[in-house]
């Protein structure tokens, strides 16, 4: 983490669907160049919270700013300042690797000259020059995953949001993917990642743990393990989940 410059600020951010509260008054800040893990079981409210921060869903109440922009009033500007990758990778499988790069690069506003330069660098970095004209649908899952992430930060956004990005891939590919995350963070890109893999929390600068729409813990992995006298983030999570279930 480079410094303490906040790029995401939230205060009592809430999302309700009729009588159901999916995200319940969450408050936290995220800093420039930080890898921030947004952890919790499936259904904990992680994706709903991320959608509000990405300008894809209007909060019911509370405050939030992303890259200095208001999540209520400046959603289109937010979208231009962030990258986004979902578990489904968001790539067009009936387009080639190069066509996907050029298509999304165009959406991000890159010039033809920038696209040409960045396409070559990206293909070289991922070591897939020989696959440039292959349909994305024919690529192995791990390659699709790394390509989707690289395209999501092609325009050097201030923040990249990753929603369960490593779901369904093997441990070796997951580690390779995290290498790309570290490289992005070293360039000052803030990485906001949701995951239900508790071991991935160890790769983050700080983590928050959501249970039933609320943030039940926030800090570095070392701090959280020390606070709850646990040796792993799995232990931290299950202890918090048990406490929440008892209503304490």
Automatic annotation (TrEMBL):
CDD domains the UniProt entry points to: ABC_subfamily_A (cd03263)
GO molecular function term, any single one: ATP binding
UniProt keyword terms in alphabetical order: ATP-binding, Nucleotide-binding
Every ABC transporter domain range: 8-237
SMART domains per the UniProt record, alphabetical: AAA
PANTHER family per the UniProt record, alphabetical: ABC TRANSPORTER G FAMILY MEMBER 20 ISOFORM X1, ATP-BINDING CASSETTE, SUB-FAMILY H, MEMBER 1
UniProt-listed PROSITE patterns: ABC_TRANSPORTER_2
InterPro entries: AAA+_ATPase, ABC_transporter-like_ATP-bd, P-loop_NTPase
Signal peptide: none
Name of this chain's protein: ABC transporter ATP-binding protein
């Amino acid at each position: 983490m480079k410094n303490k410059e906040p790029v995401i600020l939230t205060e009592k951010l809430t999302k309700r669907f009729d009588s159901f509260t999916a995200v319940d008054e969450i408050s936290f800040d995220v800093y420039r160049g930080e890898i921030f893990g947004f952890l919790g079981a499936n259904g904990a409210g992680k994706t709903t919270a991320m959608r509000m921060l990405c300008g894809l869903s209007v909060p019911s109440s509370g405050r939030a700013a992303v890259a200095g922009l208001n999540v209520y009033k400046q959603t289109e500007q937010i979208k231009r300042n962030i990258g986004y990758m979902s578990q489904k990778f968001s790539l067009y499988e009936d387009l080639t690797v190069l066509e996907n790069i050029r298509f999304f690069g165009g959406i991000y506003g890159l010039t033809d000259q920038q696209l040409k330069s960045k396409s070559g660098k990206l293909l070289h970095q991922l070591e897939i020059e020989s696959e440039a004209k292959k349909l994305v649908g024919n690529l192995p899952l791990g390659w699709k995953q790394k390509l989707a992430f690289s395209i999501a930060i092609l325009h050097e956004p201030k923040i990249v949001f990753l929603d369960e990005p490593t779901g369904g891939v093997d441990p070796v590919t997951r580690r390779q993917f995290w290498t790309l995350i570290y490289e992005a963070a070293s360039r000052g890109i803030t990485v906001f990642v949701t995951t239900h893999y508790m071991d991935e929390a160890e790769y983050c600068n700080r983590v928050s743990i959501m249970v039933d729409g609320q943030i039940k813990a926030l800090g570095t992995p070392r701090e959280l393990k020390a606070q709850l006298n646990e040796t792993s983030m799995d232990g931290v999570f299950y202890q918090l989940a048990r406490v929440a279930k008892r209503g304490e």
